[in-house]
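How it folds:
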Amino acid sequence: MKEEQYFIVRKKAVPEVLLKVVEAKRLLDSERVMTVQEATDKVNISRSSFYKYRDDIFPFYEHSRGKTITFMIQLDDTPGLLSRVLSYVAKSQANILTIHQTIPVNKIAMLTLSVEILPQTEGISAMLETIEGLEGIHHVKTLARE
């Protein structure tokens, strides 16, 4: 039996058909549509594409619920920046397990956060994108998911 492999990729790298499968699944879960045919018609994909990929793609937050995510952030040593980062984590209703920040070198620090994804946690991908978009953030990298 071949070992399954998982990848984390940015949305822009995912083929459109897979994104439409995710949207069709969301429509079915929210009961906005009652049948697979209605969902696939609404997102403009074939039923065969839906069935082919439905068990292979999940939104990052959905697939990670009840898990721990560790990510690293390279950031400027600016007063209040860490507080803004932690605020976005709190707004997403994720539970911070550990925080480690290195001593800044050339006014740049590395921050490592371990976050528990709870059932009420919303929008982990959006949270990471928002953090990455903050002024003073150089990049965000997911290190581990358990």
Q: What stands out?
A: The chain has six helices and four strands. Residues 11-58 form one domain.
